[in-house]
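Entry 0007
Protein: GIY-YIG nuclease family protein
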Amino acid sequence: MTVFGKSIRIYLKDGTVTGIKFGEVVNQTIQSISCPRSRIGELSSYPESKRPGVYFLFGLDEESGNAKSYIGEAENVFDRLQHHIANKEFWNEVIFFVSKDENLTKSHVKYLESRLIQIALTTKRYKIDNYNQSQLSSLPLADRDAMEEFLTYVKLLIGVLGHKLLEDITLPSAQLPIKDNTSSNIPKTGISNDLNSGTSLELFLNTSGYKASAFQTDEGIVVLKGSEAAKENTNSLAIGYVDLKEKLIQNGVLKMEGEKYIFQENTLFSTASPAAAIVVGYNINGPQFWKNINGKSLKEIEKEKVKS
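Output (structure tokens):
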């Protein structure tokens, strides 16, 4: 199936990225507005804020310091936000979504809310502050399909506005296990590592007695479930990496099995070096030690890509 590009229009009301922002997908009816908590009162002058819609409150979790979000729905978004000003302290930004043609009903937004909570809990990028997931409202088939299409535009706009909580950690579409004749206990996927094979690159790290596998994607390095990590850290491990590893342990991403930690889920790192450092327990040059199945380092591969 042919995938077409999308055009997103962002209007900065104050001409700054920290103020009120309007977003829309060109030729679609969806309308989004991002607003700082300190300026919620200004939304009263926008008719969009008085319509039925879904909204996201964004802030930080006070215990872990990780990104946190609350997802809700309302027949009048502005009225509901006034309630949250008084009763929820953690958030400092709201992004809400309505329809420019005013065709969203209460049943529609309740369906959207439930699906959005479901998606956000599955991606595990943010801590979700919703304690109970509402049941999907019953919609006619045509309405349900329309809302699923609306969701695709919500994902696009909220990502463009700086939050990827609805995006799965990107991996190749097919990971087919193949027979592994090496001593590594890390599953191989059989994905080609040619320079022209696409944006995802399969990588392996096997050093200091630890073995890990990963993919380089558009967002960084995704270390795969089942990869190993050191039990102890050396004094050379940067304090930022120590804190990151501790968070992964507290969140259950790293679990002790025998004398090593094991990754319990696919885990995204921004670059190759922190991904490698968490595995081996000391500072390490990730681009030199992450290698493809043929033993070529990520550093060499990236140089070749630039030349080609």
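Curator remark: DSSP finds seven helices and 14 strands in the chain. Residues 8-160 form one domain.
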